Amino acid sequence: MPVDATLPEAYRADVETLWNYHDMHHPIRPCDVAIGLGSHDLGVATYTAELYHQGVIPRIVFTGANAPTTVERFPRGEAVHYREHAIELGVPADAILIEPYATNTGQNIEFTRKLLVDQGIEVRSAILVSRPYQQRRAYATAKRLWPELDVICASRPLPLDDYIAGIGDVDRVINMLVGDTQRIIEYPERGFAIPQEMPAEVEAAYRRLIEAGFTARLI
Predict the structure, then answer these.
(1) What pTM was computed for the model?
(2) Quick one: pLDDT at residue 1?
(3) Alpha carbon distances (Å) from 175 to 149, 152, 157, 195
């Protein structure tokens, strides 16, 4: 049975509100490294490769093992598949490091930092490349765990409907948006991230989507 990839109009305004909130809108500028955060979204590797070819970054780290949502698509691990994809797109293999053990965003940051230290690579600035709705959480996590790092966030620049079509599953995208919004609220209290301001209209949209049943990614 085909999965629906069309955003229902009844949810559009609320989904767009969350989508826009999670985009940090950071201008792209040269940095020491791009850190591609593993997920089900191969577009992370695609866009990281584009940044390399644009000369924005000289080195890439792909980080990620597997989650239940990625093990079928990336059986050898997210970072490994991302690296292979970037090489297919013309990035030299020796410009890519992989961190294949992280299973959450905090570990993505911590394990990447250790890898770079172990390799003797000094990094002062980084572009965190993630799926679009992970930007704000990635930023908050990095500022908590690696506060001295000059961080900007980026994602493959796709309109919402095009992104949903690429993923091929609208329910999955909405559930992930809702889940990441909850983590912006909850994770600072657990010490995982710095606090982020959440406008009232964002919280209201988040609550309405929970009431509509998009709860699969809540913690």
Answers:
(1) 0.92
(2) 41
(3) 30, 25, 20, 22
